Amino acid sequence: MKYFWVFFFAVFPLAVLGLCFAAPSMNWWFPYGNPAMTPLGQQIDGLFYLILGITGATFVGTQIALVYVLWRGAVDTEGKAHFSHGSHELEVIWTIVPAGILLFIALYQMDVWANYRIKANFPSGLVAAGEEGGHAEFSGPIAEVTARQFEWRIRYPSPDRVFHNEREVREWLRNPQPDDLHTVNDLHSPTQEPVMIYLRTEDVQHSFFVPELRVKQDAVPGLVIPIWWQALKPDEYEWTCTELCGWGHYKMKARVVAEPAEDYEAFLESLRESQFDDGFQTASAE
Ligand SMILES: [Cu+2]
User: Fold this and answer.
1) What interhelical angle do 110-117 and 88-108 show, nearest 10?
2) Which among 237, 230, 150 has a CA at the least distance from the CA of 186?
3) What's the CATH architecture for 128-275?
4) pLDDT in tens, 231-258
5) Distance from Cα 208 to the centre of ligand 1, integer Å
6) Cα of 251 to ligand 1 centre, how many Å?
7) What's the pTM?
């Protein structure tokens, strides 16, 4: 029976090692697409793998120690067990080591976090250099997304609109324009280049979540929050609300369509034609 427990506890570290290697290739670790479909998402996945490595190694290490102790007790039937009141040194070591590991993770992930959340660190085309001065390649947001019970309302600036600086963007966010284009639950964006949206909510708290792009951001009443991503591959990505926002929460299933720049421009043109078609004459933007 003693040996049973030795082998019983020996199975777990082996199973963990096997799973750690099998899970990524079987898509159990990142069920929503592996690898991530954005460069920043791949860095975020890298952090998850780092933490998986650290916790996996710790688990396997402690299990091996446990199996060793059980094994010693099983083979040594004569000796008497050593009784200990505890060890101050060991207590200090196993407090400092995890604290050091946590501190390392906290510092190591700071760049990824900053690139993800802090606007000054967004890719250069998305941030204007100054309030008025602008930036040579400044592109501004592709859309404003407003969550409401229970849908996502998307407002695109007219393809003719050019943002030169942050002030113009803020004015556009504050004042919807007659030439803006609108869709619901269907957000189009060009691939390969970084794109930015502004997220807000009209009522309660919602959450913008596109798992394959590794983009997740709460929509908070009173805040207008910039989010960016760079989709690597043209595709339709599942987009859901991940904050239980009311009885119709399930209805907030939408899609982000990432497409080549030409297709994206064609989409905006066709949207403009259908939106400004008066039914009498040939559809025209004029
Ligand atoms: Cu919602």
Assistant:
1) 40
2) 237
3) Sandwich (2.60)
4) 999 999 999 999 999 999 999 999 999 9
5) 8
6) 8
7) 0.82
